[in-house]
């Protein structure tokens, strides 16, 4: 069972806490079993005979046992809660660390909304039964078995009542639990759906408002929310049957004990204290069974969540680190594609086919092509966000699949197509790739990225707050901060994935001039839609349907490439293409 394996593997470092929980739960249970017998002894041997000394001595003993029981219960709950919280913490960490190793392919397989649900809600669903186990379930079997033994010592003739009440309770609760399992599985899927819809709406709020789709999105969220609510209500209605059934069985059993026990007392075969103790033990046994069944109601949902967590933890990443990583002899930043092909799983045709080129230090290699030609996929192969399905990508003569991932990523500065900033400050975002960068280095990067002016205009400068995703700055400002972040890293290779699209032509030109004037021999790979952005590149690759159809400088391509000439004409006019 995955739930058991997941819990035991995660709790293995905390075996001492689990052992302490068991010890104190055992102590508490023994105390609970002793008290009814002592109470019966007071009634039958103290009260009945008028022995005050016996009543006082037994009462003091009961008080001491009660104090031990209270202390043991508190201690067991404390250690149990600590172990359960540590389990939740470690599970979240394991999921977070493993997801951090995923390629874009694995992330897309689950979806961001589902991964968030699995890291939060699913972990909580696993954590809760573990907590309940440590606080209740450990004592339940001891209480049930011990209660049967102690009850039989009081009156064997009433044992048949236990043989009837316990199976009836188990069957009644079991029927409810069996019906709840598919509802719990459905609930987790519907929680994913609510998270996905809400995340899409929060991310695309501007698009929704621009197209006046508020009513449509409200209805869409309402549908997902209603489906989750209806499923939860069905599960809740079944759950609501548990307590009435348990109380009915317990009360009927109590009445039966008193009814048949009274006849035994009248016949002189049972004493009043023994009957009271037997009734108490029967209630304890039924309570233990109820606790076990309550746990059995939590376990199906936890099992569903454990399966979902295991799906993430057991999925190997397609960009696994090499068993024996190599290290280039020199870190100069030469990027080479050798007959590279790539296709997404399940795709009919490859996105890239037979791509070969070399990007050299101190030069700018530009990639241009129509939408869907594979430009972003191509540059994502450099930092190994995906692995090639054919050919190889090399940095300084070593295949990226043979490089240690930290070493690879440390040599690449990436400005993604969607410029994402993290909640914090301007400085914390710029230092994302180089935590030890000085303020002067940050200003230098901003100067090159044409972001110095607007950052200095902010009230707090480098300490100005940035909201999650950079939503409190404009698209152009966000893009310039992302470029500055990559420049602060000072990597041998810098990849710009359509990173100038939000800039006006004047800012674009100044930024390109500043990049060209940068000291050092950085290899720059630029994906662009605008010809003006790459017009001065040392090498321009024209990509069409995943293949390089032409390559050369701007002037060379105007003479030799019909595709490139059409792109120039569409953007700059026939005169520029002439």
Categorize the overall geometry.
Answer: elongated
Give the strand line-up of the largest sheet. Answer: 6-9-10-3-11-12
Number of helices: 23
Structural class: alpha/beta
**Share of helical residues:** 55-70%
Query: Termini separation (Å)?
Result: 71 Å
Radius of gyration of CA atoms, rounded to a whole number: 35 Å
Mean pLDDT: 84
Q: Could you describe the 3D structure shown?
A:
It contains 23 helices and 12 strands. The protein has helices at residues 2-11, 15-47, 52-100, 104-110, 112-119, 121-137, 139-154, 159-203, 205-210, 214-240, 242-267, 272-313, 375-380, 405-410, 426-430, 439-448, 452-457, 475-489, 505-516, 531-534, 554-560, 562-572, 574-577; strands at residues 335-342, 352-359, 364-369, 390-395, 398-399, 412-415, 424-425, 465-466, 493-497, 523-527, 539-544, 547-552. A 6-stranded mixed beta sheet has the order 6-9-10-3-11-12. α8 (159-203) runs antiparallel to α11 and α21 crosses α22 (562-572).
